[in-house]
Write the C-alpha cells for this entry.
Amino acid sequence: MRNIAIYGSRLWESLMEMAKVGAIEKGGGLRRAVARNPDCGGGMT
C-alpha cells in the first residue's frame, strides 16, 4: 500500500465549499441523494 499525500488546507476549503450547498438557516445542511437507478436506494424522493 502506498502513502497518499493529503493537503489539509485544501481538503478543509473543499469541505467548506460543499457545506454551502444545501445550507439551512439554523445550521447544518440538507442535501438529498438522487440516483437514476431506483434499485440503488437513492431514488428521487
In short: The CA atoms of residues 15 and 30 lie 15 Å apart.
